[in-house]
Amino acid sequence: MFNSSFYFAPELPNLKLYYERFISFNVHLEEILNVGAQLGNMLFKAGFKNIALFHGDFHLDQSKSEDLKKMLSFWKILMKSGSSGLLESGLINEAEIQAMEEDLNIIAMSENAVFFYQFVQTFATY
After folding, report:
1. Percent of the chain, pLDDT > 70?
2. Of 2, 79, 85, 112, which is least packed with CB atoms within 10 Å of its CB?
3. Any residues with CB less than 8 A from the CB of 109 and at least 6 apart, and which?
4. pLDDT for 66
5. CA of 78: how far to CAs of 27, 39, 54, 75, 100, in Å?
6. How far apart are CA 19 and CA 25, in angstroms?
7. Cα–Cα dist 89/24, whole Å
8. 58: number of Cβ within 10 Å
């Protein structure tokens, strides 16, 4: 994960609010928000060797509209996967979940749509 790399356009308030609260919830759980950037250090400190880091990204817009729509559909599922904890904590309500989904639908249809996210994967031996 590299949460700070998430970018979307057009910027819509409900998706932005949901994502900010998702990040806030992760901070509350004391999770490392940008763990992808720390993976090499974490594996090294844990005694792993032959550490290889691979960077990937999704940078989609209307020039690849079908890929963009598929990713936004997947992103909805991914964002909703954490909704139960957010609901239980009182950080969001059902209407805000639906509004976030609607914003993702709007992005999919926008002529200026952009979805960008970077991630890090690693391989290592012990």
Report:
1. 90
2. 112
3. none
4. 97
5. 18, 21, 22, 5, 12
6. 10
7. 11
8. 16
